[in-house]
Amino acid sequence: MHSLDKWLLAMLPGILLFLGACQDLKEYRGTWTGKVEQSRLVRRGIDICARMDIEIRQIGASTLDATLTLRRDPDAAVCSSDLADEGVVMALPSASVTLAPVPEILNDALANLEIEGEPLFTHMSWIRLSDVPFMVFLTVYRNDRLEVRLTGPDAYAFFKLSRAGD
Question: pTM score > 0.90 for this model?
Fold first, then answer.
């Protein structure tokens, strides 16, 4: 293998990452929804009947214009209040909040965190739910897949989202 070939192979991941960063992923626009992960291994302080909806208006590696709503799943048969061992959970808010990336994090090594499954990128946003601050990790994968990790002082939850209506 020639030195030029080796150089091109070494540069390819960075070039692909740069191209992805410049791209607006129009195919991810629209409404995404998903239930909270039920396992208490990855859920604390968030009701088991929680559902998250995210309306994405624009998304790319360095841009995000989206609204998050955390609500009670109308199809949930049981909520945390029905269980004796659930512990304290926050009341599900009725308001939607705007997600916006934290520019300083986009410029930091945190923006390059590697999460299983080879995501395209992860956005980190601060939000307030029921007057409590939360950090939202919105991870975008190829093939129409989003994951959200919601973390706060006394809460953590994981949501796998799919397109609304799928």
Answer: no
